[in-house]
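Section 5: illustrative case.
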C-alpha cells in the first residue's frame, strides 16, 4: 500500500502541468489541486452554513475583545486578504474551539474564553487556526480526498449531496460542527502551532502564553486521550514542542514590543 508521502508524490506527477506541487510555509511538500479562488468559495459557503445553523453572539464586549486580538494577528500574517476584510464571528457555543477558513473567515466559540483566559492565550488559538489557512491545509486535505476518489471532476458531484458537502466542510476544519470528525494530521497541527507562535510573537503577544494555553487545555480535557489514539499531538508533546520554539520566536516578540506593538485587549 502506498504511504501518504508516496501518494502525494504520485499525485503531483499525475497532475502534470495543469497543477503543481506546492510547498508549505515551513518547506513541506504538499499536493494542492484546487485554485485558491475555489477554496475561498468553499470557505465562504461553509461559513454561511455555520451562521445559519449556529447562534451568533451579539455581546458587544466579547466581540470587541475577539476583534482586538484577531486584527493584530492578521496584520502580520502575510495573508493576501487585508486584515479589515476578514469576517470574525463569535458563536454561542460551550466548546473550547475556534476555526479559520479560506476566504478570510474566523469563528470563535464563546466557550473558548473559559479556557483561553488571557489575550495571549486566545491569540495562540486564533493564530494557530489562521496558520491552517496560511499553510493551505484545507486545500491539501480536499485535494488528497479528491485524488483518492478519482480527481477534480468529483468535486461537483460530492457537493451535490448533503453528506458530501458536509465531508468537504469537515475537511476544511469544521468536523465537529457538521457531525464528522476529520481532525488535522499531527504534521499539520505542529505546522500550525509553529506558524501561529511566530504570528503572535510578531503581533506583540508573549509567545510563552501558548504554553499556558495548552496547560489549560490539558486541565479542561483531563489530560486528553493517549497520543497513540489521536492524530493530534498529546498535550504534553505539544507543550514540549512549544517550549523548544521559544528561543526562536522570543526575539520576534521583543522586536515587536520595541516597535510599539502591544495590543491592549481587555475582556
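Designed sequence:
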Amino acid at each position: 500500500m502506498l504511504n501518504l508521502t508516496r501518494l502525494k508524490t504520485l499525485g503531483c506527477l499525475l497532475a502534470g502541468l495543469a497543477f503543481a506541487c506546492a510547498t508549505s510555509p515551513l518547506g513541506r511538500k504538499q499536493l494542492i489541486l484546487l485554485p485558491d479562488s475555489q477554496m475561498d468559495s468553499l470557505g465562504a459557503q461553509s461559513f454561511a452554513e455555520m451562521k445559519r445553523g449556529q447562534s451568533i453572539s451579539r455581546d458587544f464586549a466579547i466581540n470587541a475583545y475577539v476583534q482586538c486580538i484577531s486584527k493584530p494577528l492578521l496584520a502580520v500574517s502575510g495573508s493576501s486578504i487585508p486584515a479589515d476584510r476578514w469576517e470574525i464571528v463569535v458563536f454561542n457555543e460551550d466548546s473550547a474551539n475556534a476555526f479559520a477558513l479560506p476566504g478570510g473567515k474566523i469563528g470563535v466559540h464563546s466557550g473558548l474564553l473559559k479556557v483561553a483566559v488571557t489575550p495571549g492565550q486566545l491569540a495562540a488559538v486564533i493564530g494557530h487556526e489562521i496558520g491552517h489557512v496560511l499553510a493551505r491545509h484545507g486545500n491539501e486535505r480536499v485535494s488528497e480526498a479528491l485524488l483518492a476518489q478519482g480527481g477534480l471532476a468529483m468535486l461537483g458531484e460530492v457537493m451535490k449531496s448533503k453528506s458530501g458537502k458536509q465531508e468537504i466542510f469537515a475537511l476544511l476544519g469544521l468536523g465537529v460542527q457538521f457531525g464528522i470528525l476529520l481532525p488535522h494530521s499531527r504534521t499539520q497541527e505542529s505546522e500550525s502551532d509553529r506558524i501561529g507562535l511566530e504570528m503572535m510573537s510578531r503581533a506583540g503577544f508573549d509567545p510563552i502564553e501558548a504554553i499556558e494555553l495548552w496547560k489549560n487545555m490539558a486541565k479542561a480535557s483531563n489530560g486528553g486521550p493517549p497520543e497513540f489514539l489521536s492524530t493530534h499531538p498529546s498535550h504534553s508533546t505539544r507543550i514540549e514542542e512549544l517550549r523548544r520554539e521559544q528561543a526562536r520566536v522570543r526575539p520576534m516578540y521583543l522586536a515587536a514590543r520595541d516597535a510599539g506593538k502591544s495590543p491592549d485587549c481587555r475582556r
